[in-house]
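Protein 1 of 2
SEQ + STRUCT:
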Amino acid sequence: MTKIKYIWVPSYQANIWWFRGTRKQYATLIRREFKREAPEPARTVSGTVEEYLTRRQTVYMIWLKNHVVHVLAHECFHATYHVLRDRGVYLTDGSEEAFAYLMDFLIREIRK
């Protein structure tokens, strides 16, 4: 079963989409929404995070083949890293709470 969620992160003005479905469904979504081809993940990959530029902003796309919690956490970490890196925040002892709060927010929003 496919599923998509659109998550707005007001504190970072970030637009994150989460999609669960097959690689083929993911590729179709990317072609339809962004008019480009999705990178082909390795067959062993069950999730990925990609950035897509629109006229207005970057969309951070989280794709999962299945809803497996440890893969969800793994990909949410990547999305958190991308969002904060693009805002000049890198993972350090002084920024770890920002990473933890954003990752927590993403996981909670996706699991609703």
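Protein 2 of 2
SEQ + STRUCT:
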Amino acid sequence: MDTMRDLAARVDAMAQSFAARVPLAVLDHAMWRAAERFPGFRTETIEDEVREALAAGRVTIDRGPLGLHPKSDPTCLYVWTADGDRIYAMRVDALAPDGFAIITTMRRRDR
């Protein structure tokens, strides 16, 4: 019989595996907004930041707790960096039918 610790370790391993393999497409809009909102940010790291967030379980459908306008888009998932500075919206899209398209880059309203 698995303990809760064993189950948690299995879930963590599945998240790591999923994050490493899920197809991601970074849309131009996400890169433009990242460059606009975070001067000097290297937009080629967006995919890495999204994979890291997925692996760490930093994903939600609710925008409000992230310091964004509370009206959520029901078609989007939101992931954020470990420091909470950048938030990415992503959804299933024709450009990533078996994964996610990263559609925009946002900053918390309180920063």
